[in-house]
Amino acid sequence: xxxxxxxxxxxxxxxxxxxxxxxxxxxxxxxxxxxxxxxxxxxxxxxxxxxxxxxxxxxxxxxxxxxxxxxxxxxxxxxxxxxxxxxxxxxxxxxxxxxxxxxxxxxxxxxxxxxxxxxxxxxxxxxxxxxxxxxxxxxxxxxxxxxxxxxxxxxxxxxxxxxxxxxxxxxxxxxxxxxxxxxxxxxxxxxxxxxxxxxxxxxxxxxxxxxxxxxxxxxxxxxxxxxxxxxxxxxxxxxxxxxxxxxxxxxxxxxxxxxxxxxxxxxxxxxxxxxxxxxxxxxxxxxxxxxxxxxxxxx
Length: 299
Fold this sequence. Notes:
By secondary structure, this protein is an alpha+beta fold. It has helices at residues 2-13, 88-108, 112-125, 177-191, 197-204, 246-254, 258-262, 289-298; strands spanning 17-25, 28-33, 38-40, 49-53, 56-66, 69-79, 144-147, 150-153, 156-160, 163-167, 212-215, 218-223, 226-229, 237-241, 268-271, 275-279. β7 and β8 form a beta hairpin.
């Protein structure tokens, strides 16, 4: 234990580079997280997540301070106009962004712009926030669950980014507001530092169970024996496809990330950018040219 503590202490007291700042030539970096200068410690990776404006070849510049004075280095990177590879990166960025915005809201007060961005990120990337809930036990189901070490018969349970808020049949909230605020602050702090998909769900308090399941970047809720993407809106276009048909495998070929989403079950609804795909025994067995054009244009 002494050796392990010594290693951690040496890293903390002797960072390799401090006040590291990142800038780019060729593209514009937006909404970068961590948002300020960062320190690099021995044995750790520097992970920075950001949106970018522009595409093509660009040069990333890194500037920092060491005990020997200023240091800088650069690397050439190609920023694609659009890519379906590594879709988890977008969710990592969105989670850190939600954590950052939630912290800013508590420190400086909220605004409609911040609330709208938190809500939009939560819906697009399946991240529990103060404005979204993904597990609802409908009144009358009266599931018995464990809360703070005591069995309680509840009519409704809502899982949000601030933890679990339980409502009893009398309508009272089982957790005090102060406790909810503390949990929300703890969640936001954890979200600001996530660098893996496992950390995303852990930071948000999301866990797979009988009614909630994660697959890739999507969160699904089981309703009437159908796994429904929490981002799904009934007003959009829906392409219905029969599981394991030619159309099913063609979709996976066109959009490889659907493989993970389709793994939740043979009855599922998955949401894309401007449309949804429903797996149903009554769905189409083959894709038409119009269907494939629809996928390329709206997914």
